[in-house]
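dumping the sequnces here before i forget
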Amino acid sequence: MIEKGKLFVISGPSGAGKSTVVFKAMEGRKDVCFSTSVTTRKPRPGEMDGREYFFVDLDRFKEMVENDELLEHAEYVANSYGTPRAYVEEKLAEGMNVILDIEVQGARQVNEKKPDAVKIFIIPPSIEELERRLKGRGTDTPRAIEARLIRARQEYREANFYDYIIINDDAERAAKELAAIMLAEHCRAADKMDYLK
Amino acid sequence: MIEKGKLFVISGPSGAGKSTVVFKAMEGRKDVCFSTSVTTRKPRPGEMDGREYFFVDLDRFKEMVENDELLEHAEYVANSYGTPRAYVEEKLAEGMNVILDIEVQGARQVNEKKPDAVKIFIIPPSIEELERRLKGRGTDTPRAIEARLIRARQEYREANFYDYIIINDDAERAAKELAAIMLAEHCRAADKMDYLK
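..and the predicted 3d for all of it:
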């Protein structure tokens, strides 16, 4: 009997170091994967359908939305993106833990359809530290940084929607916490009832 | 600011290997301790008040029960035992994670008074395996083993009261799961709200 995987929804402000933490937590593990998104954007050279994205046209995308084939979807810069439910379900059935790295809005959509998803919010130690990190990256204009900070404060107001909050003051430690959450969630009593027969 | 410790209530049938798992999970850690019980039994040679137990007379014990100074209490072989609330609260305030190794009955009492306690049930992979282990120990008569198995089955019916179930098929792995649960529980969103200001 393969134990089913679990769905982990991860959000957090840009600059919190989400990807670093998630990749560190996934290191050397074969039971964790990212979900592959569906998008209407054209593939770039080197991108492969089903690897970077599932590439679909706008009609098919609309159909997927109508048929409830997406766990969440959103538009960015004139292109649509979404999380294909069938793909996620398939991975979970194979025993894979599936990670969705999405914004609060998307996390809420997923939660509607998969209430047993584990919701994790990754944040920097403080907003001041977030500002320092964003300035340190040197990739954003002061105005863009200001916009990111405003957005972070908005997201923080929704943090109580999440099950767990990881403070990323040290990526190594944060990754350990994420791995611990994944392991602990597999010990939930509700999932172990078969052993009590 | 010291982060408050958490209270972990651990139960499971005799022969599940609870102590081994708990001691392995505590190895090398200074942030986890067992609670010290209050008892009316007389100290044995070498036992020290406040170390093995807090030794009290029956009057004082009754007073503790009446004054709601115990998180749970029970009687075994004509002696009374209980978990002193003040001691547990003090350790938690110091940032210690406190472990209570108690039976289902006691776990329910604790839960009434400390609903935020994390409840963990440790079990062997199967009742058949439990029987093998109890026979293998060679310390119980066949009748005593039968009684333990009946009791285990009774306890199993209350397993859905627990937050987590750890299957102890491998003490090393089970200890990792216990440690992961302890770490994950410290990432609960409700405990991190101070970081969102």
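Chain B has a mean pLDDT of 94.
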